[in-house]
Amino acid sequence: MVLKTEHYVINVGPQHPSTHGVFRLRLTLDGEVIVDVEPIFGYLHRGMEKIAEGRNYTKNIPLTDRLDYLSSMINNQAYCMAVENLLNITVPERAQYIRVIMAELQRMASHLAGIGFFMNDIGAFSTPLLYMFREREKIVELFDMACGQRLNYNYMRFGGVSMDLPEEFLPALKKLLDGMPGFINEYDKLISTNEIVLVRAKGVGILPKELAVNASAAGPVLRGSGIKWDLRKNQPYSIYDRFEFDIPTGEIGDTYDRYAVRLEEIRQSVRILKQAIAQLPAGETMAKVSKLIRPPASETYTAVEGPKGELGFFVVADGSENPYRWHVRAPSLINLTALKEMLLGWKVADLMAIFGSIDIVMGEVDR
Amino acid sequence: MPSLNNFGEGLLRGLKVTLNHIGRKWITVQYPEQRLNMSRRIRGTDIIWDRESCISCRACERACPVQCISMAVSRGEDKKLKTDDITVDLGLCIFCGLCIESCPTGISIYLGYNYTNTTHRCSTFSGAKTGNTPSDGRCREIVRSNDELLVDDAARPRSGYYRPEISSALPPQTLLIDQTTYLEDLRKRGLK
Ligand code: SF4
Ligand code: SF4
């Protein structure tokens, strides 16, 4: 007897906890197998890029916090660097180091959250997530100490940072860095060789090299597929050429590789931070910049390596106090374009593991 | 696909990691009975304004990205600017601190050290579109104006954000990092 089957369309999200609240996937299934995927987003769309055109440059810094809200510091840095390029401002040494310290701490915090949620997505209900969040909390406390906020930092300014680090900051940071490798090894022991994680993640949702490149994927999604591309090394910005660190890559581009790359990047960030603390010079934290800036008519695309990939700001100035055009190259959105390739042919039960391994933040996808 | 021959090993390993935590210090506090000290630079949910030193230049109003400060300013008989009316809508404020940074006197406007600013029920609201449900409009109970912005008592202390002299007088922040450090922890339990 031949069974006649029909394709079946189901919706996943947006209320599903793993779709991060504001993301919907329309799946076409053949039995359990995914045969087509259509991501639907826009539930968090706030028209940010348009809003930014109606405000002056300084008022847009708090807006950047709200893009990828798990890495606000790096968003701040990217936007400030873009406007500094328009204005030809040189940032003082100390401020450069503080920015690197903040960016690397932020990368650690973002990856910790990313791994924690990924574990949550594959069904490890709360233990790994809580452990990750315990460490993330310590980083957030350091941000709180420096700028008074725990999520939307608004810490960097054109020409530097808004305030110098408080006295208590460096001792606390050193303490954090001393303990961090131990904690990372602990997670490694808990997660990386766990049979359930291996079965759910190894060999699942493979994104081959060529496809990753063709989809313009970036960050751990690209590096997980085995391509050694990191803007901090390949197009050094700020003062990243002064630090020694490695770029971890995966082998086959499966869900596990993307996880492993993130875990290793946390270790590398610890390395960078240790060097940055050792080299941190004294001095000014702010260049002389007037309060109301009017960059000359020009344009810039300035990109940094965010925790999710290349985060770029395209800013066009027309000589007035508001930007003429303000566009964000959001890594989460672009990494999503590879989602279909990863999902096709896999069972619906693998969907959340694969989706969780991309580590998207909807604030950045929808803007 | 990896084999499931040694299934159970990971479970035991995980259990061991979890059990190791039993000897560690607690990192949770029983809010609201116990409270942590906030950061000295906390951008808390309050705006405090000082009428005496304010020169009514409206720089804070201009700096605000969400336009939640509104000031009415006039010239007095002595030709000096004075503030007739000021309101800050804390429901709109994103506590970015740009107003604090822009103040030329450096002592006229502050963020609060408080972080709880809730009302149980909104009885006053504006902008209702349909019907009389508060969710349609905006709660006016968190809009502060004039004298309310001046209050500077123990219940509404000032934060040290951008104000170093206040910052150094505030109690030190409670840090989780002081409670859990991996190495100390291992040492204490004789593992290193
Ligand atoms: S903190 Fe920011 S949003 Fe709030 S009143 Fe000041 S400038 Fe406006
Ligand atoms: S910026 Fe300062 S001095 Fe000027 S109006 Fe605001 S509070 Fe007053």
TrEMBL record, chain A:
Taxonomic classification: Bacteria, Bacillati, Chloroflexota, Dehalococcoidia, Dehalococcoidales
Species annotation: Dehalogenimonas alkenigignens
Subunit record text: NDH-1 is composed of 14 different subunits. Subunits NuoB, C, D, E, F, and G constitute the peripheral sector of the complex.
HAMAP family xref list: NDH1_NuoD
UniProt KW keywords: Cell membrane, Membrane, NAD, Oxidoreductase, Quinone, Translocase, Transport, Ubiquinone
Matching Gene3D superfamilies: Cytochrome-c3 Hydrogenase, chain B
Major place of residence: membrane
UniProt cross-references to PROSITE patterns, sorted A to Z: COMPLEX1_49K
UniProt-recorded name of the protein: NADH-quinone oxidoreductase subunit D
UniProtKB/TrEMBL annotation, chain B:
Single annotated GO MF: 4 iron, 4 sulfur cluster binding
Name of the protein: 4Fe-4S dicluster domain
Residue span, 4Fe-4S ferredoxin-type domain: 45-74, 84-113
PROSITE patterns, per the entry: 4FE4S_FER_1, 4FE4S_FER_2
Keyword annotations from UniProtKB, A to Z: 4Fe-4S, Cell membrane, Iron, Iron-sulfur, Membrane, Metal-binding, NAD, Oxidoreductase, Quinone, Repeat, Translocase, Ubiquinone
Keyword Translocase: yes
Gene source species: Dehalogenimonas alkenigignens
Gene3D superfamilies, sorted: 3.30.70.3270
Top class in the EC scheme: oxidoreductase
A Pfam match: Fer4_7
InterPro entries noted in UniProt: 4Fe4S_Fe-S-bd (IPR017896), 4Fe4S_Fe_S_CS (IPR017900), NADH_quinone_OxRdtase_chainI (IPR010226)
Recorded GO CC terms: membrane
Recorded superkingdom: Bacteria
Enzyme Commission number(s) from the entry: 1.6.5.3
